[in-house]
Design goal:
Rossmann fold; 2 domains; transcription cis-regulatory region binding; four-stranded antiparallel β-sheet; five-stranded parallel β-sheet; 11 strands; 8 helices; single chain; transcription; Arc Repressor Mutant, subunit A; 20% strand
Amino acid sequence: MESKVLLIEDDPITARSVELILTSHNMICDTAHIGTEGLEIAKIHDYDLIILDLVLPDVDGYEVLLRLRAAKVQAPVLILSGLTSPEKKIRGFSIGADDYLTKPFDKEELVARIKAIIRRSKGLSDSTIRFDKVVINLDAKSVEVEGKPLKLTNSEYTILHLLALRKGTVVSKEMFLNHLYRGREEPDVKIIDVFVCKLRKKLSDASGGVNYIETVWGRGHMLKDIEPCDTNN
């Protein structure tokens, strides 16, 4: 399921940059350019995370955060600010922020922090995805099958990660391409079939012949639900 993020940021360049980063990582991003607008949106809709600037044209970010918590808005808040002093950070944490990242920021660090906050808020702090005999470690970007490391290329890992996040649903080849190349010049969609074929074989060899990936012709590929063996028969 896609994560929904509310960005409260008045600077149009920063706002557009964050929007592009989040959408390239398959997140939905709504943007408010003033604090009061952000407050009203946050009260109406449920978000997985709120990214909050501290210097806003109508009301400062600290006041926005205080009002969010007073209104019982439970979404975790990541402060994204050019204010770098320890006192500013401490104040943010003391009134309810979950994390604080200073500008200018590294886009990969921003994404990593967002994902970590959302995982914690949903009780997924161990940052792993498990299915049948397979364990994907999201932090290490590694895969184990029956406790043994499985060597994958970056493309194969990315495809498996995307399939695991959408287990039981078909992922289109176009979505794979977007996830792999993120707007860079993309090869023909047929390359996805090649990657999936190699990934399927590696998983099968490591698991004793289990076929985890189903191809839905004309639509894409899907990570199947593997039924446990019935030991009573």
